[in-house]
Amino acid sequence: MQIYWTPIQQVVQEARDTYTFKLELPEGFTWEEGAHTHFALEGFNQEDKPNRSLIRHMSISTLPHEGAIGITTRVKSECSTFKSILRDMNIGDKVAIFKTHSNVPLKREGKNVYLLSSGVGISTFRPLVLSYLANGEGVPHLRSVNVESSQEYLFSDVFKATDAFTAEFVDSRRAYHEAVETLAADKDGLYYVVGSDDFLRETIATLRERGIAREQIVLDKHDFQLDDFLN
Asked: pTM of the predicted model, to two decimals?
């Protein structure tokens, strides 16, 4: 397993308590849209066993051509040890990234794609939207629905409507599920879902009740985890 230690280049505040940590791009490191990585802090591998309190599974919110590895996350005033350490880090301090993989690349199968997310989960989809806007081949229409009760919607510069891309933000779960029920009228679409486990289960239940097949639902989960959500 290769571990890349790379410095923080920049910290961008996206909304209240939400930040993107932009990491220097290590030589030879690359990824595709929808990728996640293990993001770890100094000391995580100093003992015989990894210190899991210093490791998080994070989505990468940028694409390689942007020249940085973007990690977007919430850091509240009361937070975990991991987040409190991250909050106090400085530009130039190094973090580790390893085991990078994408479970949710953009499928170009001639079907409409629906991106369904909650809160900061939309950061997983930012690279998919950028990839689609650069090349829409194989995806007739892309639509995003994100629920954020704070109404501080993320990445509004990217998630804005075009002729082939629809971006919708809602401020309640009720409005979100009403939107999902409407989208599920497309019995041939592909439905990507990112959020908490409860959010996934609720969304999957809504889709399945309306005749969307398991194979049409795409989750940012490993294969061995899918049965727990989709059965």
From this structure: 0.93
